[in-house]
Amino acid sequence: MAQLHWVLKPFNELTPHELYFIMQLRSEVFVVEQNCIYQDADNKDLKAYHLMGFNNEGQLMAYTRLLPAGISYKEPSIGRVVTHADVRRTGAGKELMQQSIQTCYTLFGKQDIRIGAQLYLLKFYSGLGFQQRGDVYLEDGIEHIEMVLSV
Fold first, then answer.
1. Which CATH number fits the domain that encloses residue 130?
2. Which structural domain range is residue 133 located in?
3. What stretch of H or E contains 32?
4. In the chain, how many domains are there?
5. pLDDT tens for each residue of 122-141
6. In a 10 Å sphere around its CB, with 0-12 CB exposed, 13-18 middle and 19+ buried, how is residue 34 labelled?
7. Is 141:36 a contact under the CB 8 Å cutoff?
8. pTM of the model
9. Taking Cα atoms as reference points, which of 28, 36, 32, 33 lies closest to residue 62?
10. Helix (H) / strand (E) containing 81
């Protein structure tokens, strides 16, 4: 398993390098790998906490955006869940989500968390306790499903 060092910051505390690494990883995976042209800079980053997992060389390997209630959903949410190709299938994604869930509870209190998950990851998120809510929908040409982790 990849050994990651976790850093949490609100937007206004991100360094220019951290912001660059975040945008680079999100673009690398969501735009290039998934061949999805979408508007990544949606203004939600400004209101988010950013959870970053760095390797020992200082490279960003895992990331999520944590949003308080009322930004994306009525509940707090975890979004822009992304891992670098080098750490996939090592447990880094599971660790990222476990860190994200605990951090949401710390930041926003222990309450339900809602996500908009890519449909192919339904089993992964179900394994973390999230349950499907609603029907499959298309977002930027990719099938998604809303899921909730209930307390």
1. 3.40.630.30
2. 5-149
3. none
4. 1
5. 999 999 999 999 999 998 88
6. middle
7. yes
8. 0.94
9. 28
10. strand 77-83
